Amino acid sequence: MSGVPIYPPADTTTHRTLVTGGAGFVGSHLVEHLLALGDEVVVLDDLSTGSARNLAGAAENPRLQMMDGSILNTKTVGQAMESCDRVFHLAAAVGVKLIVEQPLRGLRINIHGTENVLTAAIERQASVLLVSTSEVYGKNTADRLREDSDRILGDPLLSRWTYAGAKGIDEAFAKAYCDQEGLDVAIVRLFNTVGPRQTGRYGMVFPNLVGQALRGHPLTVFGDGKQTRCFSAVEDVVPAMVRIERDPRARGQAYNLGGAREISILDLAREIIRTLDSRSDIELIPYDQAYAPGFEDMRRRVPDNSKANALVGYEPQTSLTTTILRVAADLLARERLSSDAMPLVGTGALRGVL
Ligand SMILES: NC(=O)c1ccc[n+]([C@@H]2O[C@H](COP(=O)([O-])OP(=O)(O)OC[C@H]3O[C@@H](n4cnc5c(N)ncnc54)[C@H](O)[C@@H]3O)[C@@H](O)[C@H]2O)c1
Questions:
Q1: What's the CATH code, domain 16-194+231-259+301-316?
Q2: Which residue has the CA at smallest separation from atom 41 of ligand 1?
Q3: Residue 200 confidence (pLDDT)
């Protein structure tokens, strides 16, 4: 036997696929991938954090249908799922800043909205890929988080934990619908997925630091900066999501999809400055100031990707340097289109990318 990863048999079936949250960061990359595979794609998105501009490259594709609406509206969800045989459920209130500031909105969308999607999928006998998060592991700093690792969450009265709480409930709903009502569902847990089109507006560290480096502003690193993460590139994660969705062995199972390299946020900031040839400094900001008094962050979050690797050959390929350059090129292209273009400095490193 060779060491080549075992993939499921080539699936040449095309689908009519609903992507909730398809105008968002991960969703728009997924939509493009599904269109390239030949699917008809329906996007349901209320454009709250996503944008039609994220799908500008696919807007003319006759196999893409856009619906502006909320997953909180059961009628809208039913209409969007009409004739669809599978759903990738990504619509969610996302981002630490947004969750801390508007916990009620997050809870409603992430719990009630998800149940609407799951029940509509049962009615239409559509399969579901539920997109969950490494946040469900909370403060567990295990060397490699496995899918069955314990969850260690903080005080449920702290709004900071409502996202992890709601996503955990989503997974429990999905599993219960699978076991009790026959829903064909698989779950993926994304770990700090990054890439072009991710916005820093809601507290995402990667685009924020890259944007600051491009502007020549100080890179604001929260806490002591020694907390570590494993960033994964959206272009590695999206094809794995599709392969997991169509593999019957994934039914009722959860899969980590994370990056391979553990890096502290301080080192990430240094690497961004170096890669972009930026003149910026680094400024440490206490968490109390960045979010709210008593804010808790994870010191470490490292995935064990072996379950997804064994199933569909998932292996992160894209280097951090490549992702930094791609995110910077994307931010520059978008800022050029906006009316309040930022003063850009130190972009010499990007000459080959733009
Ligand atoms: N990016 C990451 O690092 C990461 C990590 C873990 C999990 N995830 C999950 O991946 C999914 C996509 O996240 P993202 O990073 O692309 O964020 P995003 O904010 O870009 O995408 C979320 C999308 O959902 C839409 N949306 C929000 N509320 C809605 C509603 N009520 N009805 C319809 N649409 C609604 C938004 O407009 C947006 O387009 C989410 O479920 C998120 O929890 C992302």
A1: 3.40.50.720
A2: 90
A3: 85
Q: Is 256 in the pocket of ligand 1 (CB under 6 A)?
A: no
**CA of 141 relative to ligand 1 center, distance in Å:** 25
213 lines ligand 1 (CB under 6 A): no
Stated as kind and residue range, the H or E segment containing 235 is helix 234-245
Give the closest residue (by CA) to ligand 1 atom 18: 24
Domain ranges of the chain: 16-194+231-259+301-316
Percent of the chain with pLDDT over 90: 81
163 is a catalytic site residue: yes
| CB-based contact 327:204 (threshold 8 Å) | no
CA of 132 relative to ligand 1 center, distance in Å: 10
- 254: three-class secondary structure by DSSP: strand
Q: Is the CB of 257 under 6 A from ligand 1?
A: no
The residue whose C-alpha atom lies closest to atom 28 belonging to ligand 1 is 92
Determine if ligand 1 sits within 6 Å of the CB of residue 50. Answer: yes
Atom of ligand 1 nearest to the CA of 71: 32
- Identity of the amino acid at 130: L
Q: Would you say 45 and 91 are in contact if contact means Cβ atoms under 8 Å apart? A: yes
What are the Cα distances from residue 210, in Å, to 94, 161, 215, 349? 20, 27, 9, 13
Among candidate residues 128, 149, 156, 175, the one with its CA nearest the CA of residue 17: 128
CB of 133 closer than 8 Å to CB of 167: yes
Evaluate whether 293 touches 286 at the Cβ level (below 8 Å).
no
Question: Quick one: average pLDDT of 177-182?
Answer: 97
State the closest ligand 1 atom to the C-alpha of 22, by its place in the atom list counted from 1: 39
Helix (H) or strand (E) holding 309: helix 306-312
Strands (E), 92-169: 127-133
Distances (CA, A) of 178 to 130, 186, 308: 12, 9, 20
Query: Phi and psi for 294 in degrees, rounded to 5?
Result: 85, 5
pLDDT in tens, 5-59: 444 445 667 899 999 999 999 999 999 999 999 999 999 999 999 999 999 999 9
